[in-house]
Amino acid sequence: MSAPGGPARAVAAIIPCKDEADRIAATVEAVLTLEGVDRVVVVDDGSSDDTAAVAHAAGADVIVHARNAGKAAALETGVRHLRGLEAAEGAGVGPRHLLFVDGDLEGSATNLHVLVPPVRDGRADMTIATLPAQKVAGGGRGFVVRLAREGIEDLTGWTAVQPLSGMRCLTAEAFEAASPLAPGWGVEVGLTVDVLGAGLRVEEVPCELHHRVSGKDWRGQVHRAMQYRDVWRALTRRRLRRALSKRAPGVAHRI
Ligand SMILES: Nc1nc2c(ncn2[C@@H]2O[C@H](COP(=O)(O)OP(=O)(O)OP(=O)(O)O)[C@@H](O)[C@H]2O)c(=O)[nH]1
Ligand SMILES: [Mg+2]
User: Fold this and answer.
1) How far is CA 203 from CA 50, 137, 159, 195, 196, in A?
2) pTM of this prediction?
3) Measured in angstroms, how far is the CA atom of residue 33 from the centroid of ligand 1?
4) I want to staple 215 with a disulfide (CB 3.0 to 4.6 A). Which of 129, 201, 220, 223 is the partner?
């Protein structure tokens, strides 16, 4: 955690995305206006459109996965790239705080600034944006949200209002506590459980964000099925870890 009163650390935004050519420029431009953000890294996870070129033109560092590897892998690629840059920059005030941003927020991403102060001031180790009701209703019935919320509650005792929100600001220490990240769409639940499990502080912060919501069509259904599978896996793995550490306390279980 950053020392209160110490030098303020910069913040790097990491944007994992796939096929966001229509929205990524507005999102990158908005994130570049955020106070304290001095790097924006877009990880294009095997897009079939011009996402990478558009993001680069908008001012982001762009890394491309030749093949789709999932949201968690894209975030890890982005953070690895950032740490490489920092090593080349030499000693600074320490590793940057991380701001995870979905690629489809467009101009509303300027409102992400509220996530940064609690982390910069050392009041929280990870902040999570909670979103207002979206202009277009989603096609899901909340199965994945309930699975995620109840799983987090069971494992940590903490109740998340929006357990799947991807917009998060976190310290390097919090990121390490959750590494390796839970694969795919399990990443948010894994982050929350692991950061809390490390004794660090998590806070939800209301944030006026608007994004493309998955609908009722087959794409939306497939998206939710994959989310369900990944969230279930992230929770199951962590329950297993908990059971093992009860049987063999003091041993690190990285299942
Ligand atoms: N790395 C990676 N990112 C993806 C992939 N699919 C979507 N994304 C990005 O992940 C972020 C969130 O994806 P969305 O499709 O908006 O999903 P969501 O907002 O979590 O889900 P809904 O609320 O149900 O719409 C966006 O930045 C997407 O571009 C993928 O296969 N790999
Ligand atoms: Mg979205």
Assistant:
1) 35, 26, 11, 11, 10
2) 0.94
3) 23
4) 220
Closest-approaching ligand to the CA atom of 187: 1
Q: How far is the CA of 240 from the centre of ligand 1 (A)?
A: 27
Identify the architecture of domain 11-138+158-213 in CATH. Answer: Alpha-Beta Complex (3.90)
224's tokens: 């939710």
pLDDT in tens, 115-134: 999 999 999 999 999 999 88
Ligand 1: which residues within 6 Å by Cβ? 16-18, 20, 45, 68, 70-71, 74, 102-104, 138, 166, 211-214, 223
DSSP class per residue in 148-169:
HHHHHHHHHSPPPSSTT---EE
Please give the number of the atom of ligand 1 that sits closest to the Cα of 72: 1
Atom of ligand 1 nearest to the CA of 45: 1
Give the Å distance between the CA of 102 and the centre of ligand 2.
7
Phi, psi of 68 (to 5 degrees): -60, 130
DSSP state of 57: H
List, for residues 14-48, the tens digit of each pLDDT value.
999 999 999 999 999 999 999 999 999 999 999 99
For the chain, the average pLDDT equals: 93
